[in-house]
Automatic annotation (TrEMBL), chain A:
A single Gene Ontology CC term: cytosol
Domain of life (superkingdom): Bacteria
Residue ranges occupied by any Luciferase-like domain in the UniProt entry: 1-291
Listed PANTHER family: BLR5498 PROTEIN, LUCIFERASE-LIKE MONOOXYGENASE
Protein name (Swiss-Prot/TrEMBL): 5,10-methylene tetrahydromethanopterin reductase
Phylogenetic lineage: Bacteria, Bacillati, Actinomycetota, Actinomycetes, Propionibacteriales
GO function term, MF aspect, one: monooxygenase activity
Record-linked SUPFAM superfamilies: Bacterial luciferase-like (SSF51679)
Recorded coiled-coil stretches: none
UniProt keyword list: Monooxygenase, Oxidoreductase
UniProtKB/TrEMBL annotation, chain B:
Residues of the NADPH-dependent FMN reductase-like domain: 5-153
Entry keyword set: Flavoprotein, FMN, Oxidoreductase
InterPro entries: CE1759_FMN_reduct (IPR023932), Flavoprotein-like_sf (IPR029039), FMN_Rdtase-like_dom (IPR005025), NAD(P)H-dep_FMN_reductase (IPR051814)
Species this chain originates from: Nocardioides silvaticus
Alphabetized Pfam families for the sequence: FMN_red (PF03358)
SUPFAM superfamilies: Flavoproteins
Gene Ontology molecular function, alphabetical: oxidoreductase activity
Protein name per UniProt: NADPH-dependent FMN reductase
Length: 391, 217
């Protein structure tokens, strides 16, 4: 079971002080939060992607590479990567590069996650969101698995004899999750490929999440990837903890009431009852989180949103300390009653093992016109010496 | 087979003339179904107690508690009677919000009787200029007779001065459409909610094929 955090990188005024952090402060805070996540023992840090204010979540691989250089163990992921408006060729390149730089500590979550005005900035149309997600991912899937791709589609200029570089680390593409709140087509897509399915449970009632996950699980089995209960499921969640639950409620309420997404809508009490948001003591968060299995089954990844709605960095770091304290009990609870055939979330190491070991996937240049040889022509004894480290 | 009729009433006061008209229409439909020798169940959904939940739905994207139940009832009904007060020359915002949050296609092919109330009969064209276009957009089947009631219709002699007759006529038209819905309607291509996909999944090969074709999804 992987437990981690995800951020959308919102730059939101702190409603208790009225102060809005600068972009610079928020970007640096994001790095601090990710490093803290590793320090308290979490498994995953994921960043969203937005291309408009009030967010600092553009250029996600820049952020992740910088964090990767300052961490040792934590898996770097996205929540989500915009498969609709991003060019799949650039996604293929960016995340393969990130794989190499971080020695495979990378996976990513595809999402459409855009509001209407964003699409036209990238030459796209929101009404085609599902079609874009389907076609773009079909191309991305090939770019990571075929050295030379010939491709023609509806939404992107054709590719002929194209090789995305660098090739995936060890010949193994990063694991992919598909995130969707209410689109059954995306659950179907995840099931078809045998990829992971992530439901961002944070705004939605359990009955809906249960249905989306069940659809994915049934179709995962239908496509022959294994029994439904071995499908790879991730969920979003959110909490606010203090040792005393009433302190948690009092402190979090102004942030909840003014939150960019659900603020000025339902009350904190209604929202905590209707969605997985838990505001209370560490014990309450522990119990609520473990109860989610009752309706989605055993799952592989739980991500929490902790740094949003203007919460100050200091508070966020305290939340991570508290999460770190209940982490051993969370892990123990998640392991309880878990059948042995339910897999963990794939990692680079497990994918390499499943592929029968690492292999260099470098695509060497073709022979040049002047000499008729390639610098990597293995039949050339001089080249062979170079490759074997003799020269 | 029990015919399920749901009456949606958007009145705000208690008692409201909108609710009076809603009940009058509900009774008329009940009699008309019974006259065909069929069983009928009429339920009223009042929107006033759902006002907060509707505002929350606009912000969070999902219905809670009683609103979820009300939406479910409306979507499953064999036919609807919908009644709104006239506000600023049109249906009320509360009335519209309820229909705004339904899933796309939720009322496709559903027989609907439209009704409205106002202080004066000068507003009566609201049925044809506001409610009909709304339900045409939702691809519901609106019966030819709409029923408008002004304050005077509830006054001395009003009910028998034509309102009851109009209600019976509209009810008869609505009941004539029972059983015609669904099967006879050609469903427009649309995206389906997860519940419908659970029942009959669109296979990925088809999604992929259509993504590359001329579909809008």
């Amino acid at each position: 079971m992987q437990i981690g955090i995800f951020t959308v990188g919102d730059v939101t005024p702190d409603p208790t002080t009225g102060r809005t952090p600068t972009e610079h402060e928020r970007i640096k805070a994001t790095v601090e939060i990710a490093k803290k996540a590793e320090e308290v023992g979490l498994d995953v840090f994921a960043t969203g992607e937005h291309h408009n204010p009030p967010f600092i979540a553009s250029a996600p691989t820049t952020t992740l590479a910088y964090i990767g250089a300052q961490t040792e163990r934590i898996v770097l992921s996205t929540a989500t990567t915009l498969i609709t408006t991003d060019d799949p060729v650039l996604i293929a390149e960016d995340y393969a590069k990130l794989q190499h730089l971080t020695d495979g500590r990378v996976d990513l979550m595809m999402g459409r996650g855009n509001t209407g005005p964003v699409y036209p900035w990238f030459g796209k149309d929101i009404r085609q969101g599902i079609n874009l997600a389907i076609e773009n991912y079909a191309l991305l899937h090939r770019l990571w698995r075929e050295d030379v791709v010939d491709w023609e589609g509806r939404f992107r200029t054709p590719l002929h004899g194209f090789t995305a570089t660098p090739r995936p680390l060890d010949g193994v593409p990063p694991f992919v999750w598909h995130g969707s709140i209410r689109s059954p087509e995306i659950a179907e897509q995840a099931a078809y490929y045998g990829d992971g399915f992530f439901h961002n449970h944070i705004f939605w009632p359990p009955a809906h999440t249960e249905q989306m996950v069940r659809l994915y699980r049934e179709r995962f089995e239908h496509y022959g990837h294994g029994p439904a209960d071995s499908a790879i499921v991730g969920l979003g969640g959110q909490f606010f903890m203090r040792r005393n639950s009433q302190d948690a409620i009092n402190e979090f309420r102004p942030y909840f009431d003014n939150a960019p997404v659900y603020g000025h809508g339902p009350s904190l009490e209604e929202f905590t009852e209707g969605t997985p948001l838990t505001v209370g003591s560490p014990q309450q968060v522990l119990e609520r989180t473990l109860s989610i299995r009752d309706y989605v089954g055993h799952y592989q990844r739980q991500l929490f949103l902790v740094d949003h709605a203007g919460l100050p960095l200091k508070t966020v770091l305290e939340q991570l300390d508290l999460l770190g304290e209940i982490l051993p009990d969370l892990r123990k609870g998640f392991a309880e009653g878990r059948p042995s055939h339910v897999p963990d979330a794939p990692t680079h190491a497990s994918l390499v093992a499943a592929a029968g070991g690492a292999k260099d996937s470098t695509v060497y240049a073709e022979a040049d016109a002047a000499t008729g040889t390639s610098d990597r022509d293995l039949h050339d004894p001089e080249v062979a010496k170079v490759l074997e480290g003799e020269l | 087979m029990v015919r399920s009729i749901v009456v949606v009433a958007a009145g705000l006061s208690v008692p409201s003339s909108t609710r009076l008209l809603a009940d009058l229409l509900g009774d008329a439909v009940e009699r008309a179904v019974a006259a065909r020798g069929e069983e009928v169940e009429v339920e009223v959904v009042e929107l006033r107690p759902l006002a907060h939940a509707l505002a929350d739905h606009l912000l969070t994207g999902f219905p809670t508690g009683e609103l979820a139940e009300a939406i479910d009832k409306v979507v499953r009904a064999d036919a609807l009677v919908v009644v709104t007060p006239v506000f600023a020359g049109s249906y009320s915002g509360l009335f519209k919000t309820f229909f705004d949050v339904l899933d796309l296609g939720a009322l496709e092919g559903k027989p609907v009787l439209v009704g409205a109330t106002a202080g004066t009969a000068r507003h009566s064209l609201v049925l044809d200029h506001a409610l009909r276009p709304l339900f045409a957009y939702l691809r519901a089947l609106v019966v030819p007779t709409g029923v408008f009631a002004a304050s005077e219709d509830f006054g001395a002699g009003g009910l028998d001065g034509g309102l009851r007759k109009r209600a019976d006529r509209a009810a008869t038209e609505l009941v004539a459409l029972l059983g015609c819905s669904g099967q006879t309607t050609v469903h427009a291509p649309r995206r389906r909610p997860v519940g419908e996909e659970m029942a009959e999944v669109t296979p990925f090969e088809q999604l992929l094929r259509e993504a590359g074709g001329d579909s809008v999804r």
